[in-house]
Input
Amino acid sequence: MGASWNELRRVCQLPVRAGNDVAGLLFGDHASLVITKVFVDLNLSPNYASVGFLVAGLLGAGLQVGTGACALAGAVLLVLYYVLDCVDGEVARWQKVVNVHWGYFDYLFHMLIKPLAFFGIGLGCHLAGDTTWPLVAAFAAAVSTLWRKILIEIPGILFLKDVLRKGTAQRLADASPNATSSPMPSSGGKAPEPFRLRADLVTLRAILTNFDVGLLFLTVASALDVAFDAPNFGPLGTHSFRALWLAYYGALLPLDFLDYLVTYLRKRHFSTEMTRLLSAAHDFRAEEREQR
Output
């Protein structure tokens, strides 16, 4: 008899629930657990899911160059790409497997698939007879997505490179007159609050700007293109719901990124996150400097 559903949720999902995003809370956890149970019952390696989500993502992005049923199949594969990305982590937690190398590849896969998906859609809409604007929209959406992820990850990347490898933090702790034997993070070093689904503007914005939720909308748009022949959206000069999807993300994601960048700088996110990481890892207190 295989693992129970409750046990799978407790072991595979609850430990990381606080870090879940809107896509995971809305549908990722529910869709992935079905496949995770198959992996666990058959004792399959999580590496199969990692390879699977790369293949599904590449095929899905490639099929977006086509139209009609081809594009719809690509959209479904892109949703599967996201679900399998959830599965590999869940199976790894069940099997108590920690593989830094696969974590590295997992990160690269995301940096590859997301822009390829936008460019595949842009090229497909362009070749279908639309104007050149889908290529511009695809470029804007892809660059915005990549740079937003880079901004989020920079503190952790520098922490691993310059602190853990070189031992900088330990030397700072030894030399600091405020060094202490117990963790004393500064007030700015608190861990970020977990995301929660609520009926508010924060949740709405997360839904409307999240790439993985957007893949569900892409599937719907591709299905509408199959069901309706050449709808006309007037000023956009397009005859495709998928192109309308791309126009939306091509316009919204750059604006979302600029807003995130302003907030990132104004709230000193980099300094706050580095302080939190250093405090948690090396038991030292980072004193906040006075703002001038």
In short: The domain at 5-282 is CATH 1.20.120.1760 (Four Helix Bundle (Hemerythrin (Met), subunit A)). The CA atoms of residues 92 and 273 lie 27 Å apart.
